[in-house]
Amino acid sequence: ATAVESTPAANARPRPEWQLVGDAGPLAGRLVRLGLRARVGLTLGVVVALALLLQRQRPLLLAAAPDPTLAEAAPAAMAGVTVPYTLRAGSSLAQVVKQLEALGLGSQSSLLAAATDAACLQRYTIDGDSVEGFLWPDTYRFERDTPAADLLGSMVERFFAHLEASPHTTELSAQAVYDRVILASLIEAEGKAGDLPGAQAFASQLLTRLERDLPLNLASSAAYARQQQAPAYDTTHVDGLPPGPLGSPSPLALRAALEPADEAEASTNVFADEGPPGVGAGKDVVAGAAT
Length: 291
Known about the structure:
Blueprint (H helix, E strand, L loop, with lengths): L7 H4 L13 H13 L4 H14 L12 H12 L2 E5 L6 H10 L5 H8 L2 H6 L15 E5 L4 H17 L9 H16 L6 H16 L7 H10 L22 H8 L26 E2 L2 E2 L1
């Protein structure tokens, strides 16, 4: 029998193969081999190699692939989320669109375009150039992708739902309703909407001055004219009602404008011809005597 001659290669213990995932680079590879040969231990060599790899931002392990469903889930979850918005009495249209834009509910340009849309004004028979004054003060909830026309339209719809509930609007023309909304906005802006009897008396006083062709001389209208750069709204220099509402009146102010006090009930507070009734007048005339 022929003896099989052993060779060093056949008797040698197989050496483990250490395989790193990623590009460790020649320096890290040499360190690992050096650590093994010097019998420092496998752990030290791997730790050094890992440190070098992390420093060079070359990971040893493959990163997990991002879950594509997460990117799809975020917009889907946000789709049903609504944003609350509270429209406060006395707010002007300019203030409303700024607040809505700040909440991510549209741009000012798109909201103003919807507020002045001729089709919208015709649909609601608003005898003006915008929905100013016809946005009902309340708390609303809107989805972020709500179109500007639908967003403002819901506020106008709610305004007319309350307006039509009043028995005093059936006998008024569109122009007369518009004038009463202007009147209500003045009551609100002058701070006279604290109680219904007082607001109704103030409405009667304003109507009396309009019938006598006397200036209203209201500080609120002068302030609005400066803010909006619209001199025609300044009743301290222009006779009659302003060309449009100053803002959204409260339910109480609107009711007072639609149901002003009888002249007899308001006679003790009717201003004399020479005395303006507004806060900005500087003096009020009660029962014909200056105060």
